[in-house]
Amino acid sequence: MLVVFDLDGTVIDSSRALLKAHGVAWARVGLERPPDQAILDLVGLPLPETMHTLAPHHDPEPLATFYSEAYVTTDLRKCGQCCDHRGTGSSTIL
Fold this sequence. Notes:
By secondary structure, this protein is mainly α. Helix content is about 45%, strand content about 0%. The longest helix is centred in the first third of the chain and has 14 residues, at about 15-30.
């Protein structure tokens, strides 16, 4: 049996981790991070497209790579996001 969860936005709210990872990525390329809402408005798009939209005059690939590296190392528990905020029992599951 295969069980699949749509964690991002369904079981957990990962927006703080996402924004933190963006902060790392933008700092690594020496650019100012766009405002939170500009980033959050693009959630769901492919990452290179997101980065290109946010920085049309910059190569999106390094931004996407640095973002991905930062995001996978983010401890959601430290962002206060590994919790049962939607009443799903996710803190028990995770």
